[in-house]
Amino acid sequence: MLMVSTGNNAVAAAVRQANPAVVAAYPITPQTEIVEQIANFVSKGSLKAKYIPVESEHSAMAACIGASITGVRTFTATSSHGLLYMHEMVNWAAAARLPVVMANVNRALGPGWNVWAEHTDALQARDTGWLQVYVASVQEAYDATLMAFRIAEDRRVYLPVMVNLDGFTLSHITQQLDESRAGDFIPPLVLDHRIDPASPQGYGCMTSSADYFLIRHDIERSMRDSRAVIRETEDAFFKSFGRKYSWTEDYCFEDADVLIVSMGTLGKEAEVAVDILRKEGIKAGSMRVRWIRPFPDLDLKDRELVVIDRDYSFGFGGILASSIRAKTGKECYSVIAGLGGQEVTYDDIASFVRSRRIGTEFWFGVDA
Amino acid sequence: MYEIRLHSRGGQGGVTAAKLMALAAFRDGKYATAAPFYGAERRGAPIVSFIRIDDMPIKIYSQIHHPDLVVVLDPSIIDLVNVFEGLKSDGKVLINAPEVPEKAKSYNVRYVDLTDIALKTNLVVAGSPILNTPVIGALAKMGLFSRESASAAIKEMFSDERNLNAALMAYEELI
């Protein structure tokens, strides 16, 4: 059905299509609308899930873990401090190999208290074993949420997936949405290692170094296997619904001399900057990184890179810029912009490209 | 691309008006984005929403600095905020007021008393006149979207027919 929707409501609508058995959540700005809408679906009977209004985000993830280990589909949503608060359980869900799906509405971390967009919240969870995808439109928020369930629950993966959308910039804006019926796109979940609630038994004892080492290795093996699952799922999604997604969204990529690399809504704004730069004779292109875990294989050849980070790892650098350097061996012009919802326009992005100094870092609004 | 900045006060329905504008444009076959700007404001404080309408998918998520149209739901905001800032030289203004406010006289202004229309049609919630549906009628009259798409958008979001009645009255009464 064609309609208009906010980013948050698109996530909730996709969750209803995925039909989870358990949703456990705690509200936090700017995510609240997602769980509010899901609670609304449950109370009106259009989603037959058990909705557990827990007392904290730590409990939200713990409840999802408890439900998921019985082999049922689970969902939660959070943001910023909520994600930080559940961090212990976020690690647990991955290592217990549970296909929990979570929407994280990217928001800055206090203090100073700030509710606007930044990616540092989710990127602080990048080493937990969760798959992470970043979206840039209301439609993509819907589509990525649907695909997240199929990817997480695939036997070759059995890892949780986090769908990230920019706080307010995407969560609260209204755009058109094709609320495609999921049909049989997401197969029933069969969790091989589920616990039978009628005869509950599990193993949570001390694990030897040797076994623990194998468990960790197995997470990475599945993370590597997830690449094929992601590709297959995105191909199947295109066949079913006609919308194409990949590791990155590229724009004017092939003949580009200089490439703007970014994540989230800034990646769409960057395409407008590319149009402006091309008119000036600068052969620019854009690459919006969608998946940060697993990190895509990139072949950027000899293009110059302008990497925009809406995040930061103190004492090291922009997290996306650091990842690009590590994965491609290429230096870049590292722009730090948009933290705490700082406004970044297409004109600003075009100016980053014009004044690029490869090998340096530039804090937008601070550095000259 | 047509860019609109909407000025209202928190609680007046500016956010819903922006959504309705996006929906009406969408029903016209256009692409649209409605982006309320959330600051630290609360009920009663001046707030802005940004609406973009285009024939192509919209990729811009930043604020609108040079609007084609400025919509003012509460004329008292004109004394607090420079609502005309950045307005394009051929840009238009729509104000909810019984007459053109002094500060707006040098601009290309259309006006209609939406507050009066809301009161006349009994479109009042918790003592406050509702402005977000009547303004859609006035915008349809200005050609932002068709009267049919405006009606369809209002009916999609509100079952209470007072909303559509008020919008159609604003359509007729726009000056």
Topology of this structure?
The complex is a heterodimer of chains A (about 375) and B (about 180).
Chain A: E1 2-6, H1 7-18, E2 22-25, H2 32-44, E3 50-53, H3 57-68, E4 74-78, H4 80-85, H5 87-95, E5 101-106, H6 120-123, E6 131-134, H7 138-153, E7 161-166, E8 174-178, H8 209-241, E9 248-251, E10 258-262, H9 265-279, E11 284-289, E12 291-293, E13 304-309, H10 319-328, E14 333-336, H11 346-354, E15 361-363
Parallel strand pairs in A: 2-3, 2-4, 4-5, 5-7, 6-7, 10-11, 10-13, 13-14, 14-15
Antiparallel strand pairs in A: 1-8, 6-12, 9-11
Helix pairs in contact in A: 1-2, 1-7, 3-5, 7-8, 9-11
Chain B: E1 2-9, H1 14-27, E2 31-36, E3 46-54, E4 69-72, E5 92-96, E6 108-112, H2 114-120, E7 124-125, E8 128-129, H3 134-141, H4 147-157, H5 161-173
Helix pairs in contact in B: 1-4, 3-4, 3-5, 4-5
CATH topology of the largest domain in chain A: Rossmann fold
- Rough shape of chain B? globular
Mean pLDDT of chain B: 92
**CATH fold assignment of chain B:** Pyruvate-ferredoxin Oxidoreductase, domain 3
Bin the helical content of chain B. Answer: 25-40%
Named at the architecture level, the CATH assignment of the largest domain in chain A is: 3-Layer(aba) Sandwich
**Corresponding CATH architecture of chain B:** 3-Layer(aba) Sandwich
Mean pLDDT of chain A, nearest integer? 97
Rg of chain A, rounded, reads 20 Å
Number of helical regions of chain A: 11
Write out the strand line-up for the largest beta sheet of chain A, numbering strands in chain order: 3-2-4-5-7-6-12
Uncertain runs of chain B: none
Please give the alpha-carbon distance between the first and last residues of chain A: 49 Å
Main sheet: strands, sense, barrel of chain A: 7 strands, mixed
Please report the two chains with the greatest interface, counting residues with C-beta closer than 8 angstroms to the partner's C-beta: A-B, 26 and 21 residues
